[in-house]
Amino acid sequence: MDKVLQIAASGMQAQKLYIDVIANNLANVNTTGYKKMDLQFQDLLYETIREAGEPTNGLFRRPTSLELGNGVRVVATQRSFQQGLITETGNPLDIAIQGDGFLVVRLPDGRNAYTRDGSLKITADGTLVTADGYIVEPEITIPEDAQQITIRPDGQVEVLVVGEKEPIPLGQIELARFINPAGLKSLGRNLFEETVASGTPYIGLPGEEGLGELHQGFLETSNVDVVEQMVQMIEAQRAYEINSKAIKTAEDMYRVENRLR
Question: Could you state, in order of their start, the residue ranges of all structural domains in the chain?
Answer without folding.
Answer: 2-81+227-260, 86-220
